[in-house]
Structures are given as structure tokens and as C-alpha cells.
Write a structure and sequence with these properties.
By secondary structure, the protein is of the alpha+beta class. It is built from 2 helices and 9 strands, in the order H-E-E-E-E-E-E-E-H-E-E. Helix 2 links the parallel strand 7 and strand 8. Helices cover about 25% and strands about 30% of the residues. It has a 4-stranded mixed β-sheet. A 3-stranded antiparallel β-sheet has the order 4-5-9, with no helix packed on it. It starts with a helix and ends with a strand.
Length: about 120
């Protein structure tokens, strides 16, 4: 392999790594809502059903979250085809339906997904 070919390959790899790392840098944890106040729900309801993690894409390009995971206290892996548009939010919640019903501040169009096990109190 010639020296120029090696430089080209190294250049392509460098650009690909820069693109991959910039995609990760665009997505930030915007909010973690844990230990909701008991007053946020009706008497007898479990306030932990309001727990959620919100991600935000601060970049100018959509980011494919397929296979990304939230782990440790909760277990969740984003399903294939999950895209986070630029300047958009996505919410991962303990109980998505309950959260949407009790938390009307979630704007229309924001995806709300649910984790399978765990809670943020851990």
C-alpha cells in the first residue's frame, strides 16, 4: 500500500470518527425527574409513575438513537429506527401513559417511550 493510500484511509477514518463523536455530543440529558412529590398524583397513586429522563438534540442534524441505552437504575434500549430530530426532545418514562395524562406540559410531537424495569430512586 502506498503512503498516499494510507494517508487517505487514515483521513477517512478520522472524518468518520469525528462525525460519530459529534452525533453523540449533540444529544444531552436535558432533565431527570425522579422522586416526584406525592402531591403530584391523586391519593393512593404511586408518584414514581411520573419518573422520566428527557433527552435533547442540540445539533443541526437528526441523530439515530437505535441501540442506545439508558442503564444502571433503569433498563431501556432505544428500538431500531428511533430518530431524534434537530432541536427536538424525547422522553423515556416509567409509565408513559400515566405521565402524558398527568403532565400536560409535554408538547405534542414529543415521543414518550417506556422503560421495562427499574426506577430512578435506585
Amino acid at each position: 500500500m502506498t503512503r498516499n493510500a494510507c494517508r487517505s484511509i487514515v483521513g477517512v477514518i478520522t472524518v468518520l470518527l469525528a462525525l460519530i463523536s459529534s452525533a453523540f455530543a449533540q444529544v444531552v440529558i436535558n432533565e431527570v425527574h425522579y422522586r416526584p412529590a406525592a402531591a403530584a398524583v391523586a391519593q393512593g397513586e404511586d408518584p414514581t409513575r411520573l419518573e422520566f429522563v428527557e433527552l435533547y438534540n442540540s445539533g443541526s442534524a437528526a441523530v439515530d438513537l437505535s441501540g442506545w441505552s439508558i442503564g444502571s437504575a433503569v433498563q431501556f434500549t432505544f428500538p431500531g429506527g428511533t430518530l431524534l430530530a434537530p432541536d427536538a426532545y424525547i422522553v423515556v418514562a416509567r409509565d408513559p401513559s400515566f405521565l402524558k395524562a398527568r403532565w400536560p406540559a409535554i408538547p405534542p410531537g414529543v415521543q414518550v417511550l417506556g422503560w421495562k424495569s427499574g426506577d430512578l430512586w435506585a
